[in-house]
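# step 3/5: fold
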Amino acid sequence: MSSQTAAAQLSSEVQKFDALAHEFWDPRGAFHPLHALNPVRLDYIAQRAELSQRRLADIGCGGGLLAEGLARHGAQVCGIDLAPAMIEVARLHAHESQLPIDYRLCSAEELARGGAGAFDVVTCMELIEHVDDPAALLAAIAALLRPGGALFVSTINRNLRSFLLAIVGAEYLLQLIPRGTHEYARLLRPAELARLARAQGLELRDVSGIDFNPFARTARISADARVNYLAHFHRPE
């Protein structure tokens, strides 16, 4: 997919983030919660998967925050996104950081058509709740993974607590993220995510919650997955 084609096909969800790409690396900008979450996500992945010299695909990489951390752990990272401005920001920042990350403007489905079974690890952070067809995304991810590979997904649960905290509180009251970032109906419960992944031959290994303190701007792993959570899946040999 060329950059012109991708731009022409931008969904409303992609447009939300593409318009804010210039703020991506500002720790006090529109994406500042991601800057707090990123060390927690990175540690979770690094504790559960070998990264050094492993091929890794970061699906929905945005401006490259997680991708750069993974590259610093020794992974050979390919980051993809459908937002042209995000990919441009990611490439520029990786160049400044002297990190050899392969950023591509394409979908997971397109990457899978050219690289089935090519990756040891796939990460998909804060993306699945924004796509129209989560099952199709997981099918593409499963195709990308080699047997024995690992998938890590970060998303938001769907219940009253997550609605009040992640949408009403974070978007409207505290204005931590732009209004309209999340749509409640698109959120997935862990059991729903596990069922979709299982249909693609992926086994659930772990679900852990992420506690985010909006006032201290800190995050930590917890046993409470009622709002933000991380899931680890495995593709059997």
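# step 4/5: annotate
Residues 1-9 have pLDDT under 50 and may be disordered.
# step 5/5: archive (pending)
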